[in-house]
Amino acid sequence: MARLHEYQGKAILAANGFKIPRGRAALTAEEAVAAAKELAGGKKGTEVVVKIQAWTTGRAGIGGVMFAKRPDDVRGHAARMLAMKVGQFPVEAVLVEEKIAIEREFFLSFAIDDAARAPVIIFAAGGGSGIEERAASTRRIACHVKSGPLDSAVGEAAASCGLSPAHATQLADSIQKLFTAARSVEARSLEINPLVLTKDGQFVAADCRITIDDYAVARHPELGIEIAREFDHPPTALERVAYAAEQSDHRGTFYFAQLATVAAKDSKGLVGFHGAGGGGSMMSMDAIVNAGFTIANFTDTSGNPSASKVYRASRIILAQPDIVGYFGSGSGVASQEQYWSAYGLAKAFWELDLHIPAVIRLGGNTEDRAVDILQRMSGLLRAPVEGYRKTDAPAMIAERFAELVAGAGGTKWKPRAPRVPKFVKDPSATMFPVKSGRVWIDTTKWPQIRRAVETHSGGLIVDRPAAAGPAAALPSEEFANKDSELLACDVECRLAGVEGFYLELDIPGLDELIGGAR
Q1: Domain boundary pick from 185, 218, 251
Q2: 336-369 pLDDT, tens per residue?
Q3: Is the peptide bond prior to 234 cis by the omega test (within 30 degrees of 0)?
Q4: Which of 9, 216, 368, 407 has the highest CB neighbour number within 10 Å of its CB?
């Protein structure tokens, strides 16, 4: 589920008839001061509230909600909040709003009841922090998927609060409008906590949390959601690169989320994590955490991904600084050929001249071939790469990983640009365009690499006398989609000790990030 910030959610509520506090988001301390002055309208001593915009609960408890009357106080609170981290990720915005004179608080929430396969509205005559512990006091109001809650059920809920008839009518109207607002953006959940009755008799949405159904994001470009996935933080630059890579290649799946940038206290270090298959990935994450490591990221490539997709995933994992090793573990689905993943990993490891340990468990079809590829590539690297099969338990290989990391003496990874063979710049090199990349062949080395290329490319590149050397065996549009087979040629030629074949694969935005990280 894709999340929205409070200020974004309140804009949706306002568009659907809710009253919200006056205010606006600020990205800098000076913008926060300007917003506070606008709210004051020239009146000194006007009190405002400054709130961090972060996808977390309990903001007040971490100093993320503060009141202020003077511009200097607003500036100080905003500057401190914008320097905060929630979890391990920075706060990017604050919301500056007018202070509301509250008479009563209510809790109002829209959600999807998976068991009933229908929406439900949860209501309580009391809001604010700790609502989860007061579950017994809540009401569940069933909703029709199109028409919403029954008027009678809404009226009964509003009447139970001991309000005046006029206020009960306003509250019932707010409950109905909650359904309308949620349906307008295909929300998976929409929570107003608290919905307040002000001292001047108005119902105002004082806080708001919204998540949008992943599959609905494409239908709502007006929401400006960058990544249709549930994160606990706004997308990082590396997550944006990874999401773009996934969207450009739908062969299999690639999921990437950053979890930590600094190892936990008493941890053995940050680990680049690469899973395969949901259940296998979860079990493997538990194993590496139990071995004493902090996971820098969660990555999953499954559903029979292309070798080039696994390569890009590996390059993105290795764009994270300070990791002490690369831990890959999972079990592929019945249709997944593990040697393709092994080729993708092997190419990334060689190009980046891997010098931290890697332990890879590729259980499933062709696992023996996958392990063989990784073991042969390990001989060309400065650090060990060990391959394992489905019969090797995640806990066992996590222990082995810990041994290898300990033997590396505290070596930490620094992101770097990939190695590119010198012959690529030679005018005599032959180039073929492929999906999001290019194949380069050193024609002077063609006799040495011809057999490996013709074998591992499945006949995609052949020696045609009329062409005086290597030539594509398929029309260009078909050839361009065979990047996995060509990646295999790249790796096999390198393993054979001949530098004459190179597959260059684009990862838009990654080189710029690596340049900044070095």
Answers
A1: 218
A2: 889 999 999 999 999 999 999 999 999 888 999 9
A3: no
A4: 9
